[in-house]
Design a protein that fits this description.
mainly alpha
Length: 271
């Protein structure tokens, strides 16, 4: 692949990963909302002891939406489809890495890590020669670490990505999503006469974690990010963080049937 073409492909890949980050974070956010709603419902005997249409609307809706989101993120696209029409998905990013293992070489990866080096915070007492030696030691450490990291994508010492290693990571993640993908394919996206059972929340949580781990694996290679799955859950900014309190106050007056008007808090601009 020519340098210009490789640069263009890498830029497109980087943009796709940035877009996918939003989708993955949103998936983690939905799970957090479900977990916190369960806690609220368990604290209310009227909601805890009986399954109502409200439960179905909220929790079945969450399950369906999350399953479809996992399915879309893991989609590899169809063979023969034009490249410009391929879906923006983790599966398609992995496919591009397998199809073009030279898109990010070892030299590319190491140079990027070296370029991110900041000068060591040296004591003022050090001489210029000692400062130079310390900076060189830091650079050697970063380069060695970058080479070890690249080994996880290429195999020890190889200069290009390993199709086998990349495909294996994708297949492992897909296996963890198996119950969710079957449900999305045979019950949600289509109506199969012998569709699978609805996945449990445990199976859905495992699928979401697999998607998060796969994203971080790709993100590190493509963009150099050091994010880990646990950090994705805390990245979401969805307005007020204490939104559960809105569910612990009456919404409608039992006597009048009128909506309860919340008083504006001190310092608010409500009228």
């Amino acid at each position: 692949m020519k340098p210009a073409s490789r640069g263009s492909s890498l830029a497109k890949l980087t943009a796709d990963v940035g877009r996918l980050q939003e989708d993955v974070i949103r998936l983690y956010a939905w799970r957090e909302v479900r977990q916190r709603l369960v806690q609220v419902f368990e604290g209310n005997p009227l909601l805890r002891d009986d399954w109502t249409p409200l439960h179905t609307f909220i929790f079945s809706g969450y399950t369906a939406q999350a399953c479809l989101s996992v399915r879309r993120l893991m989609d590899r696209g169809k063979k023969g489809r034009e490249q410009r029409r391929q879906p923006v998905s983790l599966g398609n990013v992995m496919k591009q890495l397998c199809d073009c293992p030279c898109i990010i070489t070892r030299c590319d990866y190491v140079d990027r890590c070296r370029g991110a080096i900041t000068k060591a915070n040296c004591p003022d007492a050090l001489s210029q020669e000692e400062r130079g030696a310390l900076d060189a030691a830091v650079e050697r450490h970063i380069v060695e670490q970058a080479n070890r990291e690249y080994d996880a994508y290429s195999g020890p010492g190889r200069c290009r990505l390993s199709r086998y290693i990349i495909a294996r990571h994708y297949c492992e993640a897909r296996r963890k999503c198996d119950a969710v993908l079957k449900d999305a394919d045979k019950r949600l996206a289509h109506c199969d006469r012998k569709g699978p059972g609805v996945p449990t929340w445990g199976e859905l949580d495992d699928a979401i974690d697999a998607v998060g781990e796969l994203f971080c694996y790709i993100d590190r290679l493509v963009t150099g990010s050091t994010s880990v799955p646990d950090e994705l859950a805390g990245t979401w900014q969805g307005g007020r963080r204490d939104w559960e309190e809105l569910l612990r106050i009456p919404w409608v007056s039992a006597a009048s049937g009128q909506s309860v008007q919340a008083k504006p808090s001190p310092g608010s601009h409500g009228t």
